[in-house]
Amino acid sequence: MATSKSANTYNRQNWENAEFPILCQTCLGDNPYVRMTRETYGRECKICARPFTVFRWCPGARMRFKKTEVCQTCSKLKNVCQTCLLDLDYGLPVQVRDHALGLKDDVPKSDVNKEFYTQNVEKELANSDGTTPGGTLGKANAPSDLLLKLARTTPYYKRNRPHICSFWVKGECKRGDECPYRHDMPTDPNDPLADQNIKDRYYGMSDPVANRLLKQATTMPSLEPPSDKSITTLYVGGLEGKVEETDLRDYFYQFGELRSITMVPRQNCAFVCFTARASAETAAERSFNKLILKGRRLKIMWGKSQGQQATGPGKQGGTSLAPVPGLPGALPLPPTEDKSHTNFFNLATPPSGPPPSGPPPIPLTLPPPPGQILGMPPPPMGHPLHPPPGGFPPLHLGIHHSDPLQFPFMVHLHLPACLRL
Ligand SMILES: [Zn+2]
Ligand SMILES: [Zn+2]
Ligand SMILES: [Zn+2]
Fold first, then answer.
1. Which run of H or E residues covers position 44?
2. What does the buried/exposed string (b/e) look like for 13-25 if buried means 16 or more CB atoms within 10 Å of the residue's CB?
3. pLDDT by residue (tens digit) across 114-127?
4. Where are the beta strands (DSSP E) in 117-201?
5. How far is CA 169 from the centre of its chain?
6. What is the pTM of this model?
7. 85 CA to middle of ligand 3, Å?
8. 67 C-alpha to center of ligand 3: Å?
């Protein structure tokens, strides 16, 4: 360290002056209006020992102040956060990421080569557009399965909590609720996780967190395809209104032809139906625990067979839909609705009301006049202005029922009235 430090006193042009820190979302905290102080050449980088610009900020209420620990060159070199040193894309320790990508890089760990190496890297970074990490990582290929399985997609703000109050641990803290430190028991010193250090994290060597994550990955559950070979539907959960049908279509189409995609916005889920079982199996295997779209990790499960759906709401998919009250009983379904499309929610068959008395019912097999009912979506569910539970007034009122051509016309008259609302 001493060599490097003295070298830096004359090699001042090497010092780093930055306008903004490179941080992960967790370190920044949940407040979008974070205030930072900036201190030029405030400290030595904990990795390369060159002075760099230190930023300090508080990542939210009741959190501890954080500061940048390594310089931006070191951060870009490994694509890590300047503060927590976790990978910026996956929120994982360098060791896990490099293991998953099969990377082995040549960052020198001794003081002798370090400065020469960082200088070269800086030159290389200056020539790039700054959007890709430097070093071997910049040349790595697509993310591996392991990486997608383990990646953290949401910020983990607990990591910003204050450190444990050492007085409280000894039973001597007199500050009570005012104490800015955390009154929690520390982890067992024999726990391997208690021994973490910044250099091991950065270089990706003997990092206890990484070892635990890699161990976890080997015991992760897998998704068994159902024995009923007619099932070609996958349940996709956790959409949270951000993932749209086109996103799902774009992703799942790579596994084979899709029969349909049914979105259920109220349950934040969707059903993706493949035409072939083999495609569904590949999709399930390649997506289970690994599918991340628009920053959300999506839940993948197998759908239920048609027979099971008819008997009750799905349990496996977590979509137990109660029958919707107030659905019109007297209306026939729009003829274009395909069966596989609506069957998932048990809504395809509306609650059957008593058969209309009086004139004989008009056969539903009647072909609709072109352009009138075709493509008409089913009436919206749970509509506040929907007709009362009794349903619509009987369709045959005032209509000459012996003329079958008037029947579809009547349907047309009623449907747009409730759809427009
Ligand atoms: Zn550095
Ligand atoms: Zn961070
Ligand atoms: Zn305390």
1. strand 36-44
2. ebebebeebbbbb
3. 777 777 777 777 77
4. none
5. 38
6. 0.59
7. 28
8. 22
